[in-house]
User: What shape does this take?
Amino acid sequence: MARWQVSVAAFAVCVVTALCVSGAAKAEPDPALVDAAKKEGSVVWASGLIVNQAVRPVAAAFEKKYGIRVEIATADNLLLRMTNEARAGKPTIDVFDNAGDTITAMRAADLIIPYASPEAERYRPEHKDPEHYWTSCCVFYYSTVINTDMVPPEEEPKTYQDLLDPKWKGKLAWSSNENFAGAPGFIGGTMLSMGDEAGAAYLDKLSKQDVVRIPGNARAVLDQVIMGQYPIAVVALIHHVAISQAQGAPVKWLKLGPLIGTAETVGLVKNAPHPNAAKLLFDFLLSKEGQLVLQQANYLPADPGVPAKVPELKPDAGGFTATAILPRMNDEYLPKWLGIYKRLFVGG
Assistant: This one.
């Protein structure tokens, strides 16, 4: 197995910047909340983050700080599970996080409650709900990625228009997932950044490039590019690229224009069995301390004051901009973007 194919968890860059360390100190949470949470004794966290990479380290840090046991649940089929449990009057989950594509449905179904965490005050507007139903614990940026063994520097695309070059026909790939992490996210970013008319014209031309649909998520597409199956991934997570680069993979993400930005949203379950411990864990995830744990797990902290482990992976340090795909767009725009994807790229 090649060195760059080892588990993501094996990526180790152990430097924490002085900025993070100096910013980590913060006043403790409300003592009354801590006492109430400790009386509950445990909290159930359903997470969409990689368990061994991020969830267990965060849980361990929380347990060490407060002595409250964290039970880890899967976030698979979260909306269905929460709906069924609510109907039965027996919710089992206290706090959850996911990539945001079901949070509006959860709210519409009256499954979650608002919580104005004091930790969220310093977060950017696009990373928190104005009505406090969710806050982002980490952010994701998607960009076009190349295999540097297959695409020499002089042939690197410099703009999105360069992806339309006939030499790339049949050599571009993206995920077949029909959500923001797949082609619809790229389509949405294109429409939002270029405008409807110019965006539609661009996508029509891109559809003539016979973009290959890869089953699985954006990581699966990146792996195909790393292995040399395709020279270019139209869209992949840039922090996954950085992890693979550090392991020696011949891969590079490009700044062709605005990247696509999404986030992992955290929310509280209505009628949760451990409501106070849930709030405390919510606060911990957003705190400088919790954000540093996520940073060391190679996720990109949503706290604007906490840089990524590789600082260039966030806009300010990396010198790039990103078009934000917000949770509310799931209902408002996703059907439209998905329709464009199926019409132009699937033929359905």
Notes: The first helix runs from residue 18 to 23. The radius of gyration is 21 Å.
